[in-house]
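[recover] target loaded
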């Protein structure tokens, strides 16, 4: 079961990816985690990515695709995976398709967390307030200005992926502003419908 999870910053994508991975028994592959792992293990692609990251630049597509390729072909991803944070662009989506086709594989479904941006902003600012009240570290990007920039970048680079995958008939959208458990159940239901399998029951 090979799944891509899409959603704007603050939509709860990381949280839901972890829950889905636990429910389905397949690894969650986060682009950030994959890049950091490649850097820490000192692989050739990790060394190249580290140089770019230290300079403050964006890791180029070819390096990101190479890191993803190494991870999805590992034994623990043999039965599937959930990609969180990749692809971010249509070009990356095409590279992923080429990579999978070379191994005679394909994506089973693409899940999108839909959100209302005004509600999302309120959620992010509330998260920052609660962190301050509880004397926890506040994420540096949990500000109105930072979120607007991140959403603008998401709309420009990543949102076109929804049309791309919709045209292929594998996009399923879920309201990402519902309570966490309801979102998780809705995602599992969408997967079950896409794969024509009996409804997947959420674990307690």
């Amino acid at each position: 079961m090979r799944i891509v999870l899409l959603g704007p910053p603050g939509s709860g994508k990381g949280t839901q990816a972890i829950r889905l991975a636990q429910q389905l028994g397949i690894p969650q592959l986060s682009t950030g985690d994959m890049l950091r792992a490649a850097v820490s293990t000192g692989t050739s692609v990790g060394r190249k990515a580290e140089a770019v990251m230290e300079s403050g630049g964006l890791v180029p597509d070819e390096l990101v695709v190479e890191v993803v390729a190494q991870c999805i072909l590992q034994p623990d991803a043999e039965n599937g995976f959930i990609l969180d944070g990749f692809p971010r662009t249509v070009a990356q989506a095409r590279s992923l398709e080429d990579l999978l086709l070379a191994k005679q594989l394909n994506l089973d479904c693409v899940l999108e967390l839909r959100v209302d941006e005004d509600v999302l902003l309120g959620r992010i600012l509330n998260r920052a307030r609660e962190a301050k009240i509880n004397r926890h570290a506040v994420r540096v990007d949990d500000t109105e200005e930072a979120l607007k920039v991140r959403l603008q970048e998401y709309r420009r680079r990543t949102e076109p992926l929804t049309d791309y995958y919709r045209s292929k008939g594998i996009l399923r959208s879920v309201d990402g502003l519902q309570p966490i458990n309801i979102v998780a159940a809705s995602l599992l239901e969408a997967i079950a419908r896409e794969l024509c399998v009996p409804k997947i029951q959420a674990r307690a």
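[recover] notes: The two ends are 22 Å apart (CA to CA).
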